[in-house]
Amino acid sequence: MTIPTTRLGRTGLNVSRLCLGTMTFGFQTDEETSRVILDKAADAGVNFLDTADVYPLGGGLQTVGRTEEIVGRWLKGKRDRFIVATKCVGRVGPNAWDQGASRKHILDAIDASLRRLGTDYVDLYQLHSDDRDTPIDETLEALDTVVRSGKARYIGVSNYLAYRLARALGRADVRGLTRFVSVQPRYALLFREIERELLPLAQEEGLGVIPYNPLAGGLLTGKHRRGEPTPGTRFTLGAAAANYQQRYWHEREFATVDRLQGIVAEAGLSLTTVAVAWVLANPAITSAIIGASRPDQLDATLAAGDLALDPQLKARLDEATAEYRRGDATR
């Protein structure tokens, strides 16, 4: 299997159309299993890895940075074969300045991430969320410093509302500062709000779009049943459990999954594969972030890399999930 590649927005950087998300590494998934997952994705042609300084998901201050360390040890000796993306803004320490998008924190955070990853630079450095307490000019100046120093090749954002991203792009252009080249939003059949404003903005501004949660935290695999959340999954995973339950663990979502399973079964396909392929079918999407806590979970998601959805099937999926375009969630 070879995953197709495409350019990241208007940059000259080519990335695989599937990106391996690593947020399970070091908490839900031990290091040995994490390495097997990384090997399997790489063997399939995935050259794009996404992590963050606050990972692993579900942990706390005692676990921050563990995921980057695991990825860094795996990258040793093969760094030149992969596009590495990481993020900052989340809390990584006990001090008031150990979070956010201030100049102090960004410059501290990039150095800490590079140390854990065992590399001199990252290809894409992203703001994990929007810090509204820090002036956007201060943040942009700090990120410009990071790029000019060679510690990051490109910069991007995650979990930004369209109007905030548009303002940041405008300020960068006016000030002559390094511009964001990508956005990483949540996007799935069960969360389509970004189609209304964020995706049109990304297309107009030439931004790469790297969505996470294409399987809605695993609900779109169809493996979950109504009632108490499934043990050992994101819906019961430490500090992340409440967030994932609030996003997806509702009767409306379960009823939609039932409808989607019926539609996909008629086509003889896997809902897991189709859910990821549906995300990739949107022309605004650059690369979909897939993840796993076990190597076998990659089988169905990697298969989406070269699956072209039948237009009639896509239209039925669009119609069945149209209500999920409404809303104003920030992430």
Q: How is this fold's topology laid out?
A:
Layout: E1 5-7, E2 14-16, E3 18-21, H1 31-43, E4 48-50, H2 66-75, E5 83-88, H3 103-117, E6 122-127, H4 136-148, E7 152-158, H5 162-175, E8 180-184, H6 198-205, E9 208-209, H7 241-248, H8 251-266, H9 271-281, E10 288-290, H10 298-302, H11 311-320
Parallel strand pairs: 3-4, 3-10, 4-5, 5-6, 6-7, 7-8, 8-9
Antiparallel strand pairs: 1-2
DSSP helix fraction: 25-40%
Outline the low-pLDDT stretches: none
Q: How many DSSP-defined strands?
A: 10
Spatial order of strands in the largest sheet: 9-8-7-6-5-4-3-10
Strand fraction band? 5-15%
The secondary-structure element order is EEEHEHEHEHEHEHEHHHEHH
Computed CA radius of gyration, to the nearest angstrom: 19 Å
Mean pLDDT across all residues, rounded?
96
Name the shape in a single word.
Answer: globular
- Structural class by sheet pairing and helices: alpha/beta
- Report the span from N to C terminus: 32 Å
Number of helices: 11
Quick one: biggest sheet? 8 strands, parallel
